[in-house]
Amino acid sequence: MATTRLVTPTKSAYDPPLIIKRILEQSLKFEPDREIVYRDLLRMNYRDLNKRIGQLANALKSIGVKEGDVIGVLEFDSHRYLELYFAVPMVGAVLHTINYRLSPEQIAYTMNHAEDKVVFCHKTLLPLITALRPSLQTVEKYVLMKDDADVPGDASFLSGEYETILSGQPEGYEFPELDEHTMASLFYTTGTTGLPKGVCFSHRQLVLHTLGLVSSMSAIESPVRIHSTDVYMPITPMFHVHAWGMPYVATMLGMKQVYPGPYEPEMLMKLILGHRVSFSHCVPTILGMLVNNPKVKALDLSFFRVIIGGSALPRGLAQAALELGIDIISGYGMSETCPVLTIAYLTKEMKEKMSKEEEVGERIKTGRPVLFVDLKLMDDEGKFLPFDGKTIGEIVVRAPWLTQTYYKEEERSEDLWKYGYMHTGDMAYVEPNGTVVIVDRKKDVIKSGGEWISSLALESIISGLSGVKETAVVGIPDPKWDERPLALVVLNEGAAVTADDLKKHLQHFVNSGHLSKWAVPEEVRFVKEIPKTSVGKIDKKRIRKMIDSGEM
Question: Which of 15, 301, 374, 463 sits a CA distance of 20 to 30 A from 545?
């Protein structure tokens, strides 16, 4: 069979690379005067943003930054971080978003492994970087970022302050037409074993992820659709997978953006109410912190829409948010996927046919793959499994924006892409209509007497019991059944819930066929708090260690 020849463009034809400056170019087209707000400290517009990015690019060059250099950032969610999101990769350098919540040893490892040359550090985090300096092998310059006029005591090692190095710089900068496969960003994710892994993305991948999100989240029916008229505020740290890529989306669409700095409940609520933030995203822990505040019940939050990711959206949290008027759905992805893979799908027609309970159930499902994501279920031998609503397998994916390698780690990269698909480590079934339902992490699923018990399903159901603030379920060794589920429960202040109450609550779901009788835990432990990872997820690895050592 003959094939059609590829069209070769003429020398004068326009064939632009997909690079991050293409995103920024869109921000001045429709609403250049729309605001970008930082806490209650600063307001500017998109004209200002573009000028400041130009000044920052000139400042980077003035302090010796060259193409390929890695620039580390230790900062809270701010307008400065947004400027760095663009200026650093647009000059051809690599943006390393440092997770300041890791242990000092892990932070030092990531900075040395990345070979950071220049580090931008918020004043609040200066003691951390000061302590780390003797162990940092490649950093040549440190730039301070601060919100007040005070100069820190021991600042002799600093090369300058953010606003100072911007002031006096030209606003214009001729950003290069980089190869679209140039590395743009780098950050580190912690796994269950070994050292943190470097996850890197190219300009092309970040642009395609942005376009995929815009088309999937604005043109496809959903309770949480986005639009250029939305007011956007991240409540996912900007060091974590580019704040799920949403700042790039918001900037391309010219949304009003609000940046909260450190996550303080009163400030978050003040900004949400004061600016009528209509779209955000966060992990369940952060939303729970807001929803469980007694003062919230008297507020009108009917304008607020949230996508929950990072870990499963518990049924109880979804119900509590909906009762407050908050539109809420699940999203799913991982660090290696840039991150978005799926979003819960719920149309007006579906809602009209469903009971309230069924609607909540649909909102908390993992959802449908967003546009351009090829999602399959795979067994351990690399065979694809059917989408029949019952067969469980590992989610494997392909999409134009997935990381193609762990930074400087070929062996780990080969394992990630075994059989030609990226392996997520998440076990799920897929309904015939294409809706994905994660049952557990591969390492967290509880194997009891030949049954697979989903800790996520148990957590979701337990969270729906009145008085329960938070819960985590893990498998513990059992001489007869291999493993049995153990439930850890945090109660709301003043709540009087017993282990028997919880078991009776679960028994209703056994009787209705939603749970196996083996899923009801014999043991329930009431605790003051549940350990979390650096990005607010339930830390089951740490929980198991604490249980084994008798600490919990």
Answer: 463
* Structure-token pair, residue 546: 């604490």
Domains assigned to the chain: 20-201 (3.40.50.12780), 203-441 (3.40.50.12780), 451-548 (3.30.300.30)
Name the nearest CA neighbour of 51 among 167, 206, 185, 203.
167
The 3-state DSSP class for residue 380 equals coil
- The one catalytic residue in 110, 189, 366, 471 is 189
Catalytic residue among 297, 408, 447, 545: 447
d(CA 127, CA 132) in angstroms, rounded, equals 9
- Asked whether the predicted pLDDT for residue 429 surpasses 90, the reply is yes
Q: Which of 452, 483, 503, 537 is catalytic?
A: 452
pTM of the shown model: 0.87
518 is catalytic: no
| Angle formed by the axes of helices 499-511 and 455-463, nearest 10° | 110
Helices (H), 309-367: 315-323, 348-353, 356-363
- The token duo for 304 is 């607020």
Structure-token pair, residue 51: 């000028």
Give one word for 239, left, alpha or beta, with left for phi > 0 and alpha for psi -120 to 50: alpha
Our answer to whether residue 3 is catalytic in this structure is no
Active site residue 105: no
Indicate the length of the chain as a whole number.
Answer: 552
> 451 phi and psi, to 5 degrees?
-95, 145
Angle at 359 between CA 355 and CA 365, to 5 degrees: 145
**Closest Cα partner for 496 from 467, 471, 470, 528?**
467
Crossing angle (nearest 10°) for helices 315-323 and 356-363 = 120
Q: What is the pLDDT of residues 338-387, one digit of tens each?
A: 999 999 999 989 999 999 999 999 999 999 999 999 999 999 999 999 99
481 noted as active-site residue: no
Give percent helix, percent strand, percent coil of the chain, each to the nearest 5: 35, 25, 40
Strands (E), 123-217: 141-145, 160-161, 183-189, 197-202
Instruction: Out of 111-120, 143-152, 162-171, pick the least confident.
Output: 143-152
